[in-house]
UniProtKB/TrEMBL annotation:
It is found in: Cell membrane. The lineage of its organism: Eukaryota, Metazoa, Chordata, Craniata, Vertebrata. Belongs to the recoverin family. One of its GO terms (molecular function) is potassium channel regulator activity. This is Kv channel interacting protein 1 b. SMART domains: EFh.
Length: 207
């Protein structure tokens, strides 16, 4: 998941292991994570090795997450989308992502059921975590995605295009026209509309 700076400032490798044991986060048992996710123990071992190699402290903060994510989208500005994505992975809302947070989210996005993926995506769009999505929240996320994809992907994109897309999506989603979208409205609209379902696959590719 990219480079994460450990608390330790010691450059001597002999003392590294001892200091890491003292200050770094260690995940719950892989057996427990295997029961909670759609990954095998072997897959979890590979994921953990990669996570730990890139992030020795066992946790990643938002600034590091943004830096990592920016490398995948050099032609755009990924900082806003990375901010929202980080918050979605940060299940404890404490400003850091542990391996458990990362692998639980990844399990849903890569191997979860359609409903699980949609629920996770709903939580991404529900910026203020009040259980509803309003137009402003949806516009923020859609604009962040366009900014991230960059001018090379969308050379003719104009400033009002994200708003137009949100208006169209909202019209389909907000079934009772009360100005907000509930989880059930979101899931129902996405299941009824193939374009929205295709956006899920794009979302997986973005990850």
């Amino acid at each position: 998941l990219g480079v994460c700076v450990c608390v330790s400032k010691n450059v001597y490798k002999v003392d590294d292991e001892l200091e890491m044991t003292m200050v770094c986060h260690r995940p719950e048992g892989l057996e427990q994570l295997e029961a909670q996710t759609n990954f095998t123990k072997r897959e979890l071992q590979v994921l953990y090795r990669g996570f730990k190699n890139e992030c020795p402290s066992g946790v990643v903060n938002e600034e590091t997450f943004k830096h990592i994510y920016a490398q995948f989208f050099p032609h755009g500005d990924a900082s806003n989308y990375a901010h929202y994505l980080f918050n979605a992975f940060d299940s404890a809302h404490n400003g850091s992502i542990k391996f458990e947070d990362f692998v639980m989210g990844l399990s849903i996005l890569l191997r979860g059921s359609v409903r699980e993926k949609l629920q996770w995506t709903f939580n991404l769009y529900d910026i203020n975590r009040d259980g509803y999505i309003n137009k402003e929240e949806m516009t923020e996320i859609v604009r962040a995605i366009y900014d991230m994809m960059g001018k090379y992907t969308y050379p003719a994109l104009k400033g009002d295009v994200p708003k137009q897309h949100v208006d169209a999506f909202f019209q389909k989603m907000d079934k009772n026209k009360d100005g907000v979208v509930t989880l059930e409205e979101f899931i129902l609209a996405c299941q009824e509309d193939e374009n929205m379902m295709r956006s899920l696959q794009l979302f997986e590719n973005v990850l």
